[in-house]
Amino acid sequence: MFVVLCKSLLPRNVESGGTIVRRSFIITTTILALAASTSARADDLKVALIYGKTGPLEAYAKQTETGLQMGFEYATKGTMTLDGRKIVVITKDDQGKPDLSKAALAEAYQDDKADIAIGTTSSAAALAILPVAEENKKILIVEPAVADQITGEKWNRYIFRTARNSSQDAISNAVAIGKQGVTVATLAQDYAFGRDGVAAFKEALAKTGATLAAEEYAPTSTTDFTAVGQRLFDALKDKPGRKIIWVIWAGAGNPLAKLQDMDPKRYGIELSTGGNILPALAAYKGLPGMEGATYYFYDIPKNPVNDWLVAEHQKRFNAPPDFFTAGGFAAAMSVVAAVTKAKSTDTEKLITAMEGLEFDTPKGKMVFRKEDHQALQSMYHFKVKVDPNVAWAVLEPVRELKIEDMDVPVKNKR
């Protein structure tokens, strides 16, 4: 076939003899060079990042991408190679839309020949792409989507997650604010992220001795929280003891500020929520002393990985790393640790290597739990401090909630 290809490239009017030999040699050499070039590209270690680069969660997505690149840089000591293979990150914007996310991941596996995929930003989109990983028998590391269903009822064996899940968020926040004599009401977005979060929070809160008085869900596009806020106030205002509204929200809307404007203090009601990205923490400055639990705040973890990330990010971007920067970094660290242990990107070898795998991150040690491939990790109980010299609220650590401090349930049916 190769000889036929070479001959087909020769002009028909060229006579036999030295001219044909020379031209055939040139064509053969060119094709071999092209084949060698293609082979080199095929040897790249291809990692696909599926993320909502445009859409309501674009700030989260961009941080994930930055963290992923920096994580690979740190884990490979700046070489961006692993086991002699160049790490190539292929990015695909799904706009936070489930259908686009499914198409992007299928394209990454089938057309781009990605060895491993990471994503995506929206929980709804992440749930949509889980079957795509299973159909293609390829690893998908979920980052940063948090819905419990991802490593719960919708899980399959090709799914691993470095992002925290709703249960980890909820348990840590319940531990932070839930005590005997405390009454809580919740406000969450009306989709998988919010509903899974509240379900996990209720379960964890019950173990603390606190009481749940009401649940409210609002569309992600909500900007007017007057009616929902009043219903929450009515549910709490006559309760004895400490009264708290716990908010779980992602993206725009800023319900905390809107609820604060309604003056919950007149009923003795406090507000509480988990951590967030730094621009969102600017709104927390109006809530000094507020308590909650967070996945990450750049000044809390004390370890060499986080020290490097904070210093390098400040140097490069004149700002500290943010919430999802740490997540992207952790995903990169997990890939390097997994491929190094497996000595391969073969899916079955990776699964064997990754189940129970311990790896370093800016938060310290993470562990992929064998039962559901959820990364077990520390969370941080914080109290808001206002520093006039800082644009956002400072999250002062109250205590680190370590892996062994949180009984995170296994929710799949493995």
Automatic annotation (TrEMBL):
It comes from Bradyrhizobium sacchari. Pfam families: Peripla_BP_6. It comes from the Bacteria. Gene3D superfamilies: 3.40.50.2300. Residues 45-385 form the Leucine-binding protein domain. Belongs to the leucine-binding protein family. CDD domains: PBP1_SBP-like (cd06328). The keyword Cell wall biogenesis/degradation does not apply. This is Amino acid/amide ABC transporter substrate-binding protein (HAAT family). GO terms for biological process: amino acid transport.
